[in-house]
Design goal:
Largest sheet of chain B: 6 strands, mixed
Structural class of chain B: mainly beta
Radius of gyration of chain B: 14 Å
Number of strands of chain B: 11
Shape of chain A: globular
Distance between the termini of chain B: 41 Å
Helix content of chain A: under 10%
Number of helices of chain B: 0
Strand content of chain B: over 45%
Number of helices of chain A: 0
Radius of gyration of chain A: 13 Å
Largest sheet of chain A: 7 strands, mixed
Strand content of chain A: over 45%
Oligomer: heterodimer
Shape of chain B: globular
Helix content of chain B: under 10%
């Protein structure tokens, strides 16, 4: 079956522009996560959705970052007024939280480069 | 502050060697520990560990968790060049933040022919 998909795979933008990153989770997965991986760093948690609501937004680095999820499926991560430090690979994962345990399946990521 | 620390940060071995990767953690409300292999962009799932002392095994890879000493190890025997990757350890918290995972920075493994 289809895995988690993300688009675009690569995005180059100019400082100050807004960008939207898209994530299509595995069908039937109720939980969706966004992570960021900067060069040489581990994965940094950004936000978690259960259905369409976001019980944990603690990882969003600033108010320029926002995310939404509609229909319990597709999610978009929006970065407004991008800065060079936003350059990173943005990874999306989805899961079914069964019995409180959580195996997350990752998408291929979007590599964002802010010039 | 919750943290997950992996060691070593990088490791170079030759084919056929056995390697042990370490992951220690300090996390409130621990629920599970997961290992991932990251070759290009998307990490792929290896193991989920929830109980101490029970070894999980998949081919040449195995892992075990010690919840008293707060660490896990990932062993790879008879390494192959295809094992070259970044190995990520992550801890899942329970309670209100049961969704997200806290990742370590990873161990970069290079297996030379």
């Amino acid at each position: 079956g289809a895995g988690v998909s993300q688009s675009p795979s690569n995005k180059v933008t100019e400082k100050g522009k807004d960008v939207e990153l898209r994530c299509d989770p595995i069908s039937g997965h109720t939980a969706l996560y966004w992570y960021r991986q900067s060069l040489g760093q581990g994965l940094e948690f950004l936000i978690y959705f259960q259905g369409n609501s976001a019980p944990d937004k603690s990882g969003l680095p600033s108010d320029r970052f926002s995310a939404e999820r509609t229909g319990g499926s597709v999610s978009t991560l929006t970065i407004q007024r991008t800065q060079q430090e936003d350059s990173a690979v943005y990874l999306c994962a989805s899961s079914v939280i069964a019995g409180g345990y959580n195996e997350q399946f990752f998408g291929p990521g979007t590599r964002l480069t802010v010039l | 502050e919750d943290k997950v620390v992996q060691s070593p940060l990088s490791l170079v071995v030759h084919e056929g060697d056995t390697v042990t990767l370490n992951c220690s953690y300090e996390v409130t409300n621990f629920r599970s520990l997961l290992w991932y292999k990251q070759e290009k962009k998307a990490p792929t799932f290896l193991f989920m560990l929830t109980s101490s002392g029970i070894e999980k095994k998949s081919g040449r890879l195995s892992s075990i968790l010690d919840k008293k000493e707060l660490f896990s190890i990932l062993n790879i025997t008879a390494t192959q060049t295809g094992d070259s990757a970044i190995y990520l350890c992550a801890v899942q918290k329970g309670g209100g933040s049961q969704g997200n995972l806290i990742f370590g920075k990873g161990t970069k493994l290079s297996v030379k022919p």
